[in-house]
Amino acid sequence: MKVIFQGLFRIAFLFIGVLLAGCEKELDFKYHDIEPILVIEGSLTQDGAEVSLTFTTPMDEPMNLEHLTDAEVVIADLTTGEEITLTPDSEGLFISDVPGIEGHNYRLTVKRGEVVYTSECTMGAAVDITGMEFNWIKMPYDYVAVLQVSFTDDPVSNEDCYWLRVYRNGEAYKWAEINDMLSANGIINEVMMTTRMDLDEEDEGDKLEDGDVIKATVVPVSRAMHDYLEALSVGNSNGPRMFEGDFCLGYFLAAPVTAKEIVFRPEEIKYF
After folding, report:
1. Hey, which of 65, 122, 211, 245 would disulfide with 117, CB 3.0 to 4.6 Å?
2. 240 located within any domain
3. CATH code assigned at 191
């Protein structure tokens, strides 16, 4: 019953958000052109490291997804003193197959010319995804498939934070930043609204069809990383600075990834 209550609690707030969004007034924003800002997105997992370097794009120009490769990128294991130099692959991503180690402290350093950016992160402990399922929930406008992902949380420590990412057929679909406020008996049950039943009325970005492969990944993150993701989800700021040195955007995350997959079968989903 507690799991069900938690799910309904989250759904209620999601529904309120939908209602509020429908009352928003369209605003005509005025903005000033600024020089492109470097964006560093770095991750170190049990499988190795990957660092993406890009520039922000002015609001009146098409999105520029070109990766920068004119940099020196190094990850240092501050626990052992070892350093790993990452090299760009064919897509322009700096990579390494040296895995991260739980409990070790790491520093990512990116140097472009005389400009240096650094960020540090401790690699946390992997979680265990204990369950993953869909349920049809009746909303005023239609039935909606709600995905629940359940995973372990250390009941002894407080203020643990996590990043849940969901992929649809290998492509990014949805994500959520999570803290352990709703943890019960060492389990967190996170729910998110996905597709409505009437696909003719659903947006392409949310639509799920029979046979779609849904993959969920969960990683432990720091409180600063949680706040950074929260700011991005709200959309009113870039969140706390995650790098020292010259100003840039982005993050460095050292964390083990836990994944689980299911196939979306709408006819087999239970009604809640």
Report:
1. 245
2. no
3. 2.60.40
Q: Which amino acid is at 264?
A: F
The number of domains in the chain is: 1
State how far the Cα of 68 lies from the Cα of 53, in Å rounded to an integer.
Answer: 5
Question: Does any domain span residue 100?
Answer: no
Q: Identify the CA nearest to 258 among candidates 168, 139, 131.
A: 131
State pLDDT tens for residues 146-174. 999 999 999 998 889 999 999 999 999 99
Residues contacting residue 12 through CB under 8 Å, at least 6 positions apart: none
Q: Which amino acid is located at 41 in the chain? A: E
Q: Determine the Cα–Cα distance for residues 232 and 41; give it in Å rounded to an integer.
A: 14
Residue 55 has pLDDT above 80, yes or no: yes
Which residue, among 225, 256, 217, 254, has the nearest Cα to 126 in the 3D structure? 256
Q: Is residue 152 part of a domain?
A: yes
Distances (CA, A) of 76 to 4, 89, 173, 210, 248: 44, 20, 32, 45, 20
